[in-house]
TrEMBL record:
<keyword id="KW-0119">Carbohydrate metabolism</keyword>
<dbReference type="GO" id="GO:0008878">
    <property type="term" value="F:glucose-1-phosphate adenylyltransferase activity"/>
</dbReference>
<feature type="binding site">
    <location>
        <begin position="186"/>
        <end position="187"/>
    </location>
    <ligand>
        <name>alpha-D-glucose 1-phosphate</name>
    </ligand>
</feature>
<dbReference type="InterPro" id="IPR011831">
    <property type="entry name" value="ADP-Glc_PPase"/>
</dbReference>
<feature type="binding site">
    <location>
        <position position="204"/>
    </location>
    <ligand>
        <name>alpha-D-glucose 1-phosphate</name>
    </ligand>
</feature>
<dbReference type="InterPro" id="IPR023049">
    <property type="entry name" value="GlgC_bac"/>
</dbReference>
<feature type="site" description="Could play a key role in the communication between the regulatory and the substrate sites">
    <location>
        <position position="66"/>
    </location>
</feature>
<dbReference type="InterPro" id="IPR029044">
    <property type="entry name" value="Nucleotide-diphossugar_trans"/>
</dbReference>
<feature type="domain" description="Nucleotidyl transferase">
    <location>
        <begin position="14"/>
        <end position="283"/>
    </location>
</feature>
<protein>
    <recommendedName>
        <fullName>Glucose-1-phosphate adenylyltransferase</fullName>
        <ecNumber>2.7.7.27</ecNumber>
    </recommendedName>
</protein>
<keyword id="KW-0547">Nucleotide-binding</keyword>
<dbReference type="InterPro" id="IPR011004">
    <property type="entry name" value="Trimer_LpxA-like_sf"/>
</dbReference>
<comment type="pathway">
    <text>Glycan biosynthesis; glycogen biosynthesis.</text>
</comment>
<keyword id="KW-0321">Glycogen metabolism</keyword>
<keyword id="KW-0808">Transferase</keyword>
<dbReference type="Pfam" id="PF24894">
    <property type="entry name" value="Hexapep_GlmU"/>
</dbReference>
<dbReference type="InterPro" id="IPR056818">
    <property type="entry name" value="GlmU/GlgC-like_hexapep"/>
</dbReference>
Amino acid sequence: MTPATQRLSARSMAFILAGGRGSRLHELTDNRAKPAVYFGGKTRIIDFALSNALNSGIRKMAIATQYKAHSLIRHCQRGWNFFRAERNEYLDILPASQRVDENHWYEGTADAVYQNIDIVDSYDIDYVVILAGDHIYKMDYEVMIREHVESGADVTVGCLTVARPEATAFGVMAIDASGRITDFVEKPKDPPALPGDPDRALVSMGIYVFRWKFLRQLLMDDAADESSQHDFGGNIIPNVVRNGKAVAHRFEDSCVRHSPEAPSYWRDVGTIDAFWKANIDLTDFDPDLDLWNRDWPIWTYSETVPPAKFIHNEESRRGLALSSLVSGGSIISGTEVRNSLLFTGVHSNSWSTLTEAVVLPYVNIGRHARLSKVVIDRGVTIPEGLIVGEDPEEDAKWFRVTPGGVTLITQTMLDRRAGQR
C-alpha cells in the first residue's frame, strides 16, 4: 500500500491532553487526575479517547499528564502496553518534566504539545488529532481527518449541537452556511446560534485536527508570545479563525452508534451528579452508550479476577441484583442490589441493600447497610448499619451531598465520622 492510498489515520497521531484534575469531581480526584477516574464497571475515562483512536486506525499516540498522574500512568502501562515499535506503533506518556527549563511546567494545553515538539517530530506523521482525555463517547476520527483534508482547512474542530442555554459552559462557534467557523468565543453569556436554528448552538468538543507542519509553526509562534495563555481554546483556535481557515466537524457525522436510530452519545462527567447519572444510565434496558458492541470495543486494563458470585437464598437475606451491572471479583452475599453499578472486587454483606449506587473497586459493605443514590470511592469500608440516602441533612454532616441529591462517600469522610461519634 502506497502512502497515497493509506488510510489517513495511518499517517496521523493522537495527542491526548490528560493533565487536568477535574476539581468539580471534588474528592474523587484527590488522588487521581480526572482522566484516571473509573467509569462503567471496568474502564477509566481516558480509555474512551484511547480506544476511539485505536479503533479509528491510529497507532501512534501520546498522553500528556500533569496533576497526580501516577494512577493514570500505571493504568496505561498495564492496560495499553501492547503497542510494538517494530510495527511502527507507539504510545508515549509525557509527564510535565520541566523540559524547557527547571521552572516551566505545562502552562496550558497548547504548551503541553509545544514542549514535546521533538517527540511528535520523531513520529514522522502528517496529521495530529488533539484530544481531551476526560470525555465519554465513541467516535471514528478517520471520518474527521478525511473531512479536514478534503476541506483544505487549517484546523477542523469537533463540535456538538446543544441547546443555546447549555452552550454558555463551552467554547462556542459561529459558522457560515459552508461550515466555516467565523467566530470562536469561550463560555459566552449570549451564545451565537446555528444558521437557521435560533434555539441551538455549536460547541467545541476539545477535539482538533491539524496538519502537523502547520500546527508546529503555530505552537512556535504562540510560545514566543508572552501575552498568550498558551491554550488551544483561548489562543490557538481563535488565531486560526481570524487568520486562516477553521472548519466545524459535527459529531453526529462520525459518532459510532450501536444502531442507526440511536442518538449520538457524548458526556462530560465532570461533576459528581453527571458522573453518577452516566454510570447509572448503563443499567437501562437499552442504554444509549453500548459497551457490549464488539465492533467498537472500549479497551482497558482487565484484572485477572474470578467471576462475580451471589450467595444466600433466604427471606431478607438473598444475594441478588436487578437491573444492575456487577463486575468480576465481586461477592454479593445476602445483599439486594437494584439499579446499581458495581466495579471490580466489591464485597457486600448480608441484609444490606444498594439502590442506584455507583460503587468503585474493592469496596467492602458491612451488614445491614442501606445505601441509595451514592457514589462510593475505591477501597472504602462501609461500616455495619450505615444508612445513606434517606436523610439528606444527616448525610451532609459527614459526606458530600450534591445539588442533585447524590452522596459521595470516601474513607476519609467515614474516618472523620467515626472519630466524632
